[in-house]
Design brief:
179 residues; alpha+beta; Aminopeptidase; 7-stranded mixed beta sheet; 5 helices; 32% helix; binds coenzyme A
Amino acid sequence: MKGRKVKILSMCYDDVEDVIEIERKIFPAPWTADVFEEQLNQSDCTSYFVAKIDEKIVGYAGIIFPPVGRYGAGAEGHVTNIAVDENCRRRKIGSLLLLKLIEEAQNRGSRVISLELRKSNMAALNFYKKFGFRIFGLRKNYYSDTGEDAVVMFVDNVSFADYQNRLQIIRDSIGFGEV
Ligand SMILES: CC(C)(COP(=O)(O)OP(=O)(O)OC[C@H]1O[C@@H](n2cnc3c(N)ncnc32)[C@H](O)[C@@H]1OP(=O)(O)O)[C@@H](O)C(=O)NCCC(=O)NCCS
């Protein structure tokens, strides 16, 4: 699949079956189809996307904009999940998905984007750091399946020029989405 164009599209109900197939392979406590459908039902405060090569889903990502939050209504976007099929990693598909989530947060007027990840997930930690996410703290025993701690990360300046420049450098390094 090298040198192929990746499309980032809004997730629709018909995508859910393929999405949960990837989800089940990756996460120890995978979301079910019902959970994804519930998120899609709440599109006034959520945005979900899939990455497709040809017509095949190779990744997906979502963000939620809590109506009530620390920073006021809609001011915070919280990344709920982002995943790329194991056979397609390190080809910037995750980056294209995260760029889309950040763009969506900006369009909805959010200043802050937050997320959690497992403390042992070094790939994701590096990935988010590349996008300027900083570690805010730990949530002890956050994951009920293993008792692992969650690392809480955030960016608080998504509309600032410095941050926009950082994103532009990432976009330029990807080119036209051919991965
Ligand atoms: C995290 C994840 C989404 C990244 O997707 P990806 O398409 O492989 O990432 P990209 O190719 O866009 O990587 C962008 C940058 O992130 C960092 N990165 C990504 N994977 C990495 C790894 N395994 N080790 C170290 N750094 C990594 C690198 O800086 C990379 O840039 P580079 O390739 O130029 O060095 C993917 O590894 C994944 O699906 N993991 C399982 C699910 C998960 O952990 N999700 C996040 C927590 S919910």
